[in-house]
Amino acid sequence: MSITDYQKHLTDPDPAIRRKALLTLSRSEHPDKLFILSHVAFNDPDPDIRSIVRKIVDKLDRHRSLEGGTRLSGESGDFMGENPETKIEILKAMFQGRIEASKNIIKQLIMDESDVTVLSTALHTLGPIADSDDLLLIAQFLLHDDARVRANAVESLGNMDHASADEFVRPLIADPDTRVKVNSLIFLFQGNEKEVREHLSVMVAEHSVNALEGAVHAMTRLNFPKDDPLLTEAVSKLDRLRTDDPLQDTLRQL
């Protein structure tokens, strides 16, 4: 069963279908089954399913530890016990390649972390090494209350097969946060250039420094030609707004 099939069956409103998918997953050799099952164990709407899955996870976790792996229910070395500031520094070092990035530890941190700054940094760090098997883990954070977490979750999906992740990211082009919206448009640009350009046109039409900056950033990231009419219009309007309100521009740079 593919990752998309699991996503479909594990979110089905029929508990019987979810149970069958969970049974199939628990018996499979899917590399991320522990992470997927752990998510279900805490989020399934049926308390009986949550209870059963927690027992399955604990059993699989104990078996994993006997084989020499890191237990998911415990701490992944000293890293998991560090304060938020230290966690962020370690994650930054992983991202910059100064220390080896451990995908399993990063994913475990993403599952367990309550500090939104650490969580958003962990999602950002996972991005370059994420693949399609990480889709379900990352996609749940597209609905997070914190805009920074949502934005970094979209970014982390950048290495995914777009056909699989498209349905998760698409609703976020209407997100009230500009960075989330911009990251979503950048993600969806491949194969949807006309649609993305239409959304960028709406942003450029707004009398807002924030929206214009977001549109310029998106078009720059997407390698729009410098003489592209939409890009030149956005840059021109942005310059005029900043000239009209220099205090706003000064505040944004503090």
Describe the structure.
This protein has helices at residues 3-10, 15-27, 33-43, 47-66, 84-95, 103-112, 116-126, 135-139, 147-156, 162-169, 178-188, 193-205, 209-221, 229-244, 246-253. It folds into three domains: 1-71; 83-161, Leucine-rich Repeat Variant (Alpha Horseshoe), CATH 1.25.10; 170-254, no CATH class. The chain contains 15 helices and no strands. With 254 residues, it is an all-alpha fold.
Tally of DSSP β-strands: 0
CA radius of gyration is 21 Å
DSSP helical segment count: 15
Topology pattern, helix = H, strand = E: HHHHHHHHHHHHHHH
Q: Shape from CA axes?
A: globular
Average per-residue pLDDT, rounded, comes to 81
What would you call the structural class?
mainly alpha
> Roughly how many Å apart are the termini?
51 Å
Query: Could you list the spans in which at least 5 consecutive residues all have pLDDT below 50?
Result: 65-78
The percent range for strand residues is under 5%
Number of domains as seen in the coordinates? 3
Helix content: 55-70%
**Main sheet makeup:** none
